[in-house]
Sequence to fold (594 residues):
Amino acid sequence: MDMEKLLQTYVRLAVEQLYGVTATDEQIQIQITNKDFEGDYTLVVFPLLRISRKTPEITANEIGEKVQSLFAEIKSYNAVKGFLNISFTSEFWIQRLNAAVENENFGLLHGNGKKLMIEYSSPNTNKPLHLGHIRNNLLGFAIANILEACGNDVVKVNLVNDRGVHICKSMLAWQKFGNGETPESSGKKGDHLVGEYYVRYDREYKKQLSELTASGVSEDEAKRNVPIQLEVQEMLRKWEAKDTETIALWEKMNSWVYAGFDKTYKDLGVSFDKIYYESQTYLSGKSLVQEGLDKGVFFKEEDGSVWVDLTSDGLDRKLLLRSDETSVYITQDLGTARQRIDEYNIEQMIYVVGNEQNYHFQVLKLILKKLGFAWADAIYHLSYGMVELPEGKMKSREGTVVDADDLIKLMISTAREMSKELGKLDDLSTDEAENICRMTGLGALKYFILKVDPKKTMLFDPKESIDFNGNTGPFIQYTYARINSILRKANEQQIKIPKIAAHANISEKEISIIKLIDMYPETLALAAKEFSPAVIANYAYDIAKEFNQFYHEYQILREENEKLKLFRLMLSQNVAIMIKKLMKLLGIDVPDRM
Fold:
């Protein structure tokens, strides 16, 4: 039982005996005591005044006295206006620590066995993954881990946008300007090579548009008649008509991109249970459009394009099929949603997609409802903020993005340089040092991104992320390595660390650490409820920070009191276990030594 529920039980019994009324959970508000006051947990007394019919101070003192008389675990209490601060005995906290250690499923009791699907990554095959994709992948993977830890059955999926106008742009540019260049001939990663041709297309498009307007054509007319754009539209029509030559080019260039994506995913440490491809789901979307036409939910314009009118719902008209019968993003999203429900019978479908697509998901849910699908309400758009750089936003078409592979290399290189400067690689083999630099660099990148609330736009600063002090991944990793160093020395001294703590005269700092460990179940539940890895990340930092303060203030191996020394070793060991567990939820490895 978490502390809030435990205290609610205590207070409810005290209120019943004092005032003859059973208080509700809403009336018994428990919170962690403010650091400026003495106490472990605080009861907010104001909601109980209607029951006591007394002043806040008198009510707080009466409840405090009664609770303490009923429960030996409560050491003391103090009332500050309408707040009752309650302190528990050290024996109680040691019992709580032991209960956590003995329970193999500690923290995993909040699951309800829901079948959930979470979609993340969703790249386009016309460019490599960039910093924005990194945030998407890390969020999706971490949230899936958190939901699984809460006992849910989670299916991790990726929807690859492998068809459409934007894909044809890269294809056409390669066809026109590539001279047969391949990843092998160029020595470039496949997704990078294809991305260069996407940028090349945009450059050529702007050049031709400029030439048209310079010749006296109006800008609107010029935009409709840019030659290279007309060629792209024709290529898309050929693709949807299964033109042999077009399909062969598409398959070849996509294969280059998939090989590149796979390497980046492996480097990031993310994975999927299933990968969907838009090229395989858009036809299902087209059949849904036909169903909508048959039901009168959709309508055709004179040019043959298909639309849905959502103006009566406060939205706009939405295009579903172009006049040439080629599909758009929403078409395949409709088909993919139905396909997933049919395949997995999921209870909730979570899309990890940036907040610039908020309107898209409003439209998607509403269209599915209009088509009669009750499960449309199971769709949840986990809308996250963009990642920005000190110099501003990234633009793929202009080639001003931060490439994911380059960033990963930079983070590992920076970790190597900083570790050398700090002497953290001394006495390590080359392979061991490189492995630690990789863990530290990736840990810095992942933690810096995941510690920010997903809803917030964030500014990414590589140098700040890799600091070995402060709220960073390397600081938490170093704390874990520090504890392992202590445990190795204990082993060398043939000290047998007990699995269960015996009673000892422990300090307030040790109690603070135990309280943090004790909060794991409710913290995990909160992270799952809010779909926020930031809850876990900052909780891990709080534990690491508290332990480091304890480490600097108290002796562990040199403690003369044998009972206290064994307790501190056991506590340190369980801090390390908790840090490793939390960082694993975030997809971050922790090194045994640094």
Summary: The chain has 22 helices and 14 strands.
